Amino acid sequence: MAFQLGARVNGISPNSLEIDIPMHTNSALKTENESNIDYFQRAQWLRAAMLGANDGLITVASLMIGVGAIKEDISVMLLAGFAGLVAGACSMAIGEFVSVYTQYDIEVAQMKREREANNTNGVVDDETMEREKLPNPFQAALASALAFSVGAVMPLLAAAFIKDHRVRMGVVAAVVSLALLVFGGVGALVGKTPVMRSCVRVLIGGWMAMAITFGFTKLIGTTGL
């Protein structure tokens, strides 16, 4: 698109100035912004969320299937699953809080050393902006606990309304498998990694955890150890 500026004399504008204005500026800026996405930083919070959800899903499902290997009572399975949810969420929150707080202390100490060096060299730094970039231990703990709980509640809901023991075990395994595929796919799409590879890796890991828990619990329960 072009505009012409200048006075016209007899229909002729000797001093006219033609300005070309691109019409796709927004599209170009959008493409440039998308290309500048930092997938490494995105992977940090994605890793924590997916780790918490997968832990909750696999841990509680394995507990329920392990208990179900020797006890057919639905109340026992649900009680074991609920105890696993609460204990796992607390463990994830405390572990993440301690880990992130340690990282926070390290980065604060590094900031102090750099600020002292900058002041010695006559350089002024922006401490407020630097502190805003520091990790928040409380947010990390809450996010980990919530992510774990979201994953853990799925097998509980799957088993809550099924009375038949064998059907219940099959439904729990099916729901967990589907959830693992979804988690693996979402993680791959957000992190821009191969979807199929991620889904298969997560699914096989979950199956192994449930199978090992079922096998060992069944062995101990049948032998009376």
Explain how this protein is built.
The chain has 225 residues and is mostly helical. The protein has one domain (39-223). Helix content is 77%, strand content 4%. It has helices spanning 25-35, 39-68, 74-120, 127-132, 137-160, 165-191, 195-223; strands at residues 2-5, 17-20. It has a two-stranded antiparallel ribbon with strand order 1-2. Helix 6 runs antiparallel to helix 7 (195-223). The protein is elongated. It starts with a strand and ends with a helix. The model is unreliable at 2-14 and 27-40 (pLDDT under 50).
Mean pLDDT: 79
Largest sheet: 2 strands, antiparallel
Terminal CA distance: 83 Å
| Structure summary, number of beta strands | 2
Q: From N to C, what is the helix and strand string?
A: EEHHHHHHH
User: Spatial order of the strands in the main sheet?
Assistant: 1-2
How many structurally independent domains? 1
User: Rg from C-alpha positions?
Assistant: 28 Å
- Strand portion, in percent? under 5%
Keywords: Ion transport, Iron, Iron transport, Membrane, Transmembrane, Transmembrane helix, Transport, Vacuole
Pfam family, one: VIT1
InterPro entries: Ccc1_fam
Catalytic activity: Fe(2+)(in) = Fe(2+)(out)
Quick overview of this protein structure:
This protein is mainly α and 225 residues long.
Topology of this structure?
Layout: E1 2-5, E2 17-20, H1 25-35, H2 39-68, H3 74-120, H4 127-132, H5 137-160, H6 165-191, H7 195-223
Antiparallel strand pairs: 1-2
Helix pairs in contact: 2-3, 2-5, 2-6, 2-7, 3-5, 5-6, 6-7
